[in-house]
Amino acid sequence: MRTQVAIIGGGPSGLLLSQLLNKSGIETVVLERRTRDYVLSRIRAGVLEWSTVELLRAAGVGDRMDREGIVHDGCYLSTAKGMFHVDFKERVGKQVMIYGQTEVTRDLYDAQEALGATVIHEAEDVALHDVDGDAPFVTYTKDGAEHRIDCDYIAGCDGFHGVSRPTIPESIRTEYERVYPFGWLGILAETPPCADELIYANHPRGFALASMRNPNLTRYYIQVPLTDTVEDWSDDAFWAELKARLPKEVADGMVTGPSIEKSIAPLRSFVSEPMRWGRLFLCGDSAHIVPPTGAKGLNLAASDVHYLFEGLKAFYQAGDASGLDSYSDVALARVWKATRFSWWMTTSMHRFPDQSDFDQRIQESELEYLAGSAVAQAAMAENYVGLPFDDD
Ligand code: APR
Ligand code: PHB
After folding, report:
1. What is the pLDDT of residues 297-321, one digit of tens each?
2. How far is the CA of 48 from the centre of ligand 2 (A)?
3. Distances (CA, A) of 149 to 4, 39, 279
4. At residue 392, does pLDDT exceed 70?
5. Which of 98, 158, 78 is nearest to 295 (CA)?
6. DSSP letter string over 303-368?
7. For the chain, which end, N or C, has fewer CB atoms within 10 Å of the first or last residue's CB respectively?
C-alpha cells in the first residue's frame, strides 16, 4: 500500500490530523493498535480551548459539540479562606467549551467513516523504517499477516507509550520530565453538577476538582497518594473526602450517586525534543504530557495538529516546506508555555508530601494574590483559555 501521510495512532491527535488532511485532499492511513470501542472507552478530560473548538469546527466535527457542549465564562478556585471566581470572558474576552474528549474522539471516528478514510484498527507490531531517508515506510501485522505502507511522511500520534518517539535515536532526543508525588482519583457519576462552572480546590487534605460533562453527568477528582488503588476507595469514601475538600456551601448542596467509572491517573510533566526527525513528526502525547490540572492535554494535541496540518497542506498544495521545517520549534514554543502553566496550576493547588510550612504559606499567598488581582487573573485566564496558535 502507498499513501501520502501514514498516521500512527487513532486517538484525538491522529484522527484530527487525518480528518483535516483528508478534507484537503491529502491521503492518509491511520494505524491504531486497539479497537475503536477500546479507544472510545477511555475517559479523559473535558475542557476545550476556543482555538480547539474552532479547529474542530474547521475539521467538520463541531456540530454535536456545539449542540451538546457547555460554554463556560470562567472557573472557581477555592482555598481554606473561601471560593473566588476567575471570569475568563471578562479578563481576556475568551471562553472555554466543556465537552468530553471521548465525545470528540467519537465525532472524529464518525467523520472519518463518512469520508471513507482508512483507519486500520488492531494494527500490531507497528514499526517505522527509513524515517531519516526520502522513502520512509511503515510495517505492521494484522490478523497474522505482514503489511507495508510506503509514504511521504509519518505522523507519530501514538501517545506516551507509542513506538514513534523511541524511533528517534536517543542521541537526537532530549527528554525533560517531572513526576508528581501524587495521583488523581477520578469518578464519573450520573448526577447534576454541584456548581455552574468548574471548581479547583486547594485544601489542607489535598486537591479536589469538581467538573462535569452535561447537566446529568459529573466528573470529580481528588488528589490521592501514589500508593492508593481504586479498591481503597468506596463510593461513600470518595464522596465524603470530596465534600471535605470543597467549600461547605458547595458540599452541602452536592448530589451524590454511584460511580459509573472510577480510576486513578498519575501526574507528570514531560517534553521530548525535537518533535521532528527526518520524515517523522510527533504530535500530542507522543511528544509531551502535562498534568491534567490545566486541562491542556487535548488542547496541546490540537495545536500540534494545527501546525503539522498547515505545514503538510502548504507542502502538498504549493511545494512550500517552510511549515514542516519550522514545525518542531513552533510546536515546542507553545508546548513549553502550556507545560509551565500546567506546572503552575499543579504546584499551586496540590499538597506535596514534603511541603514545609513556608511552602504552604507561599501557596496560600499565591492564591490570595490571584483572588485579589485582576491582572493576575488575566494572566491565569489567558493561559487557561489557551494562548493563540499563531502570533497574528
Ligand atoms: N501502534 C498503533 N497505535 C498505537 C501504538 C502503536 N505502537 N501505541 C499507541 N497507539 C495508539 C493508542 O492505542 C491510542 O489510541 O495511539 C493512540 C494515542 O492516543 P492518545 O494517547 O489519546 O494521545 P493523543 O491522540 O495525542 O491525544 C492526547 O489524549 O491521553 C490523552 O491527556 C491526553 O488529552 C490528551 C490526548
Ligand atoms: C475533566 O472534566 O475531566 C477535567 C476538567 C478540567 C481539568 C481536568 C479534567 O483541569
Report:
1. 999 999 999 999 999 999 999 999 9
2. 10
3. 10, 23, 14
4. no
5. 98
6. HHHHHHHHHHHHHHHH---HHHHHHHHHHHHHHHHHHHHHHHHHHHHS--TT--HHHHHHHHHHHH
7. C
- Measuring from atom 22 of ligand 1, which residue has the nearest CA? 11
Q: Residues 309-334, buried b or exposed e (16+ Cβ, 10 A)?
A: bbbbbebbeeeeeebbeebbebbbeb
The rounded distance, in Å, linking the Cα atoms of 219 and 118 is: 33
Q: Is 292 a catalytic residue?
A: yes
Nearest atom of ligand 2 to the alpha carbon of 43: 3
Q: Which numbered ligand comes closest to the C-alpha of 349?
A: 2
Q: What separation in Å is there between the alpha carbon of 5 and the centre of ligand 2? A: 32
CA–CA gap between residue 378 and residue 385 (Å, rounded): 10
Helix (H, G, I), strand (E, B) or coil at 8: strand
Q: How far apart are alpha carbons 42 and 335 in whole angstroms?
A: 23
Backbone φ and ψ for 99, nearest 5 degrees, come out as -160, 120
pTM for this predicted structure? 0.97
282, 275 Cβ separation under 8 angstroms: yes
178: enclosing H helix or E strand: strand 174-189
Proportion of the chain above pLDDT 90, given as a percent? 95
Task: Give the closest residue (by CA) to ligand 2 atom 1.
Answer: 45
Ligand 2 binding pocket mutation candidate from 47, 104, 105 (most atoms within 8 A of CB): 47
Note whether 124 and 141 are within 8 A (CB). yes
